[in-house]
Amino acid sequence: MMLGLARKITERCGPPIVCSLSGEDIFLEKIRPPYYVRTRQLLRERAAEIQAFVALNEYYANFMSEYLSIGREQVHVIPHGLNLEGHGSPHKKSAEGPQRIGYLARICKDKGLHLLLEACEILIQEHGCTNIEVHAAGYLGAGDRGYFQHIQRRVDQGPLAKKFQYHGELDRDNKIAFLQSLDIFSTPTLYPESKGLPLLEAWANAIPAVVPGHGAFTELVADTEGGILFEPHNPGDLAKCLAELLENRDRANHLGKLGQVAILDRYHSKIMARRTKEFYEKISL
């Protein structure tokens, strides 16, 4: 999004220019004609002036190399790394208490909260999983309040009545506590996810995940084995995958532990810092 600055920086200062890539296409794809075509054209022109790009995963590196019409070798991958302080084990839960399915992301249609709620209605009505609660947290902007009010009305009138709670936007400590309170994590984005940070945060607390099989999620689940992929946009398949874990707690706990092991091994801030340092030292030679 800041490609337009690169030419002037190069002219005045002369260092190699590196541009990070982290989901800009979601905004760009909403630009209306006739500005969309011109914007894409300018991005491709200015991308040619950048020495290197950095993405958080192979999926987005491949996607953006085509999107910007640049060589794949120009896009380097440095995976996300979490600050692990405060993360740990999930809260001990009563065997009789409700099982908590959690969503952590911005409250908007693109992130798929409505899809999760529809899947949980199916869980209750078709799978007999009545002892559940759905808990959501994340920023709710003014432009998305109508969306949230609509799904809240649906919840209040359906099988999830009194089983759904929105916790608002959380600070770091409360976010970690929220994640540790869950049994299963799911943020069923409608678009191919470019980052997947909340998923990594769930795994840092040994919470198993059910996420759509597209974008970075496919790559992260394949690498960590910390969750199940469902067919994107399909609430019935999401419900089926959630039921599999709700009905087999040993498997769910195993997946959560696998995710946590992967975070501790290769998705933490120290290794990300080392990889970043090595990359910038190499490109500055």
Structure overview:
There is one protein chain. Helix content is 47%, strand content 12%. The protein is an alpha/beta fold. It folds into 2 domains: 3-77, no CATH class; 99-266, Glycogen Phosphorylase B (Rossmann fold, 3-Layer(aba) Sandwich), CATH 3.40.50.2000. It is globular and about 65 Å long. The relative contact order is 0.14. The mean pLDDT is 95.
Question: How many distinct folded domains?
Answer: 2
Based on secondary structure, the structural category is: alpha/beta
What name is given to the CATH topology of the largest domain? Rossmann fold
> According to CATH, what is the class of the largest domain?
Alpha Beta
Summed up, the helix count is 12
| Succession of helices and strands | HEHHEHEEHEHEHEHEHEHHH
Roughly how many Å is the radius of gyration?
20 Å
Strand content: 5-15%
Distance between the termini: 26 Å
Low-pLDDT runs of 5+ residues are none
CATH architecture of the largest domain: 3-Layer(aba) Sandwich
Question: What is the share of helical residues?
Answer: 40-55%
Count of β-strands:
9
**CATH homologous superfamily caption of the largest domain:** Glycogen Phosphorylase B
What is the average of the pLDDT values? 95
Identify the overall geometry: globular
Strand order of the main beta sheet, please? 6-5-4-7
Largest sheet: 4 strands, parallel
